[in-house]
Specification:
51% of the residues lie in helices and 15% in strands. It is of the alpha/beta class. Among the domains are: 89-169, D-Maltodextrin-Binding Protein, domain 2; 173-250, 3-Layer(aba) Sandwich (D-Maltodextrin-Binding Protein, domain 2), CATH 3.40.190.10. A 5-stranded mixed beta sheet has the order 8-7-9-6-10. Strands 2-1-3 form a 3-stranded parallel beta sheet, sandwiched between helices. Strand 1, helix 4 and strand 2 (114-118) form a beta-alpha-beta unit. Helix 1 (3-37) packs across helix 3.
């Protein structure tokens, strides 16, 4: 089969996928209308998890090529499109843009939602309480510092409900506009990220003259690399994409 024939076959499959997605959205719209009539909850994360688990099992039975991560990524975007069809979503999160909280929010609500970075956890709670946004995403626990006490305090202060939990391993990326590692003179990141990535840095930069420069956030690191030649950042994947810095290494 020639390359052009294969491409035409892919185009045909893409058309079918789009047709099926539109059929799905028509059903979603009907469900949304029924929910409004009955004043039912629109966002049900347990239902989304149920769908994902079923699809992963189905994929295994069919010996599909997609892994769990790929299936989750594709269908979380479909879920986000569905929710936005029912009611457009605005999501507040603890900033800055490109932070791991931003990445966690996108992993749950997809790229289509409107994201608002806020400077502190209290502002996130206030935005949800005053209905400026539909949902807020804040850290509640991490491996380095344990429970985030500020979040716990505001959960007691504000009459809001936890609707979902996002368990997200922290995987850094190494991003740079330099094609060769030997051209990199400066690496920017948070101090803790340098410690977390010590083995990687020792393997590639131990005997080099590259400087490791701490900054206030990994998002700031990615932004600096966008503006500066011969530099690199250890940052989140979403920060690298946000500032359009090529990712050279992941995890």
């Amino acid at each position: 089969m020639y390359l052009q024939e294969l491409r035409e076959k892919i185009d045909s499959i893409d058309n079918q996928i789009l047709d099926f997605l539109n059929q799905r959205m028509e059903i979603v719209k009907i469900i949304g209308d029924l929910k409004k009539q009955n004043n039912a909850i629109i966002y049900r994360p347990e239902r989304e998890k149920e769908i994902l688990d079923r699809l992963v099992n189905y994929n295994q039975i069919k010996s599909g090529l997609l892994n769990r991560t790929s299936i989750d990524a594709v269908f979380m975007e479909i879920f986000a499109a569905s929710r936005n069809l029912e009611l457009p979503e605005r999501i507040a999160y603890l900033g800055p843009e490109g932070s791991f909280t931003h990445q966690a929010a996108e992993s749950r609500f997809g790229y289509l939602s409107d994201y608002i970075p806020l400077k502190n956890i209290k502002s996130v709670f206030e935005s949800v309480a005053t209905e400026r946004v539909r949902f807020g995403v804040v850290p509640i626990e991490n491996n380095q510092e344990g429970f985030v006490n500020e979040t716990i305090d505001f959960l007691n202060e504000f009459e809001l409900n936890i609707v979902a939990e996002i368990v997200m391993p922290i995987h850094h990326t190494f991003a740079s506009r330099s094609e060769k590692l030997s051209d990199i003179r400066y690496i920017y990141s948070k101090e803790i990220a340098f410690k977390q990535c010590k083995n990687f840095l020792d393997n590639y930069f131990k005997d080099s003259h590259t400087e490791f420069i701490p900054v206030e956030s990994t998002s700031r690191a990615a932004k600096m690399v966008m503006e500066e030649e011969n530099s690199a950042a250890i940052c989140s994947g979403v920060a690298a994409k946000l500032f359009r810095v090529p990712i050279l290494f992941e995890n």
